[in-house]
Specification:
The chain is an alpha/beta fold. It is about 45% helix and about 20% strand.
Length: about 325
């Protein structure tokens, strides 16, 4: 039985990944910082280890593959925080792999590295600016990817995945933010909501992670992961709010004015060292105001990846759970 160690197992994607590997007969070692949350992963997790990535780097454990999901994942924060969590943390995971003779490392990165103030369709994995500094999260993911790529050799095979717009039951970011906005200031509508958006059901991402572990063709490569169903922003939000029996409330905005406002706000927050996230950021404007769709042909070819749950089915599943619990 192949032994899989998963970092960030108590998070949204981490929990679904634990379930995915457990269902397919793997011996799962779940790691995270919160012992209570780790306990909830049993019996899907065969072992749970409460530790930081720094602690993990010092441990001697038997495993065949590491899936590194743990990260500071937010759109605002200091470079020091992102560096310590995402860059240094990834280096510590690599050290753990090298010390314990791990054969494969699958690193979960982010397609936010493609973000910019322009429409981009069918983006290939190589089409990003390595000097993108739209926010510190993006900077940290680019730096972490470089470490993972440099660590790839005959002793440790590495794979990088960039899943786009992950949502599903347990999501604490994308859909909850949309619902909160709809119930308060309104949904930002830029370019009449016709900007193309790629999203990915969390089950599909967990599925892709397992395929990356199992595929020898994946070794040393990077893959975009989405549902492969890009749609206009207004279509997606319209479907979501219809499913949860709410009326969408849109607020028409200008991308240029918003970007200027976001730039000023970010400057003020940085200057005054305000820790809270600004009401609007440049990254948010780029995400909501411009089309961004990813080319997933490499994942289909090398991993045999195909979504196992459609976008509509994923939205309905989320909505059913939301109505049940709210």
């Amino acid at each position: 039985m192949k032994r899989i160690l998963i970092t960030g197992a108590t998070g949204f994607l981490g929990g679904h990944t634990v379930t995915e590997f457990s269902k397919h007969g793997y011996y799962v070692i779940a790691t995270g910082r919160d012992q209570e949350k780790l306990a909830k992963l049993k019996p899907s997790a065969n072992e749970t280890i409460a530790c930081t990535l720094s602690d993990l780097a010092k441990k001697h454990l038997e495993a065949d593959v590491v899936v590194h999901i743990a990260a500071l994942s937010t759109i605002w924060g200091s470079w020091a925080d992102f560096y310590n969590a995402n860059v240094l943390g990834t280096q510590q995971v690599i050290q753990f792999c090298q010390k314990n003779d791990i054969k494969k490392l699958v690193f979960i990165s982010s397609p936010s590295i493609y973000s910019g103030r322009q429409h981009r369709l069918n983006i290939h994995e190589s089409a990003y600016n390595p000097k993108n500094k739209l926010n510190n999260y993006i900077r940290s993911k680019i730096a972490a990817e470089k470490l993972v790529q440099a660590a790839n050799n005959n002793n440790l095979h590495t794979v990088i995945l960039r899943p786009r717009g992950i949502f599903g039951i347990g999501d604490t970011s994308i859909v909850p933010r949309l619902i909160k906005a709809n119930n308060t200031i309104g949904l930002p509508l830029i370019n009449n909501g016709q900007n193309q958006v790629d999203m990915t059901c969390v089950e599909n991402v967990a599925h892709a992670i397992r395929l990356a572990v199992e595929s020898k063709k994946a070794n040393g490569h990077t893959y975009n992961i989405t549902n492969g169903e890009p749609r206009p922003f207004k279509d997606i939000t319209g479907t979501l709010f219809k499913e949860i029996n709410q009326e969408p409330h849109y607020k028409r905005l200008s991308p240029n004015s918003l970007y200027t406002m976001a730039t000023v706000l970010e400057h003020i927050y940085s200057l005054l060292r305000i820790p809270n996230e600004p009401a609007i950021t440049r990254y948010t404007v780029c995400t909501l105001g411009y089309s961004q769709t990813l080319d997933i042909s490499s994942a289909r070819k090398d991993l045999g990846y195909a979504p196992i749950i459609s976008l509509d089915a994923g939205l309905k599943k989320y909505a059913d759970n939301y109505k049940k619990n709210n």
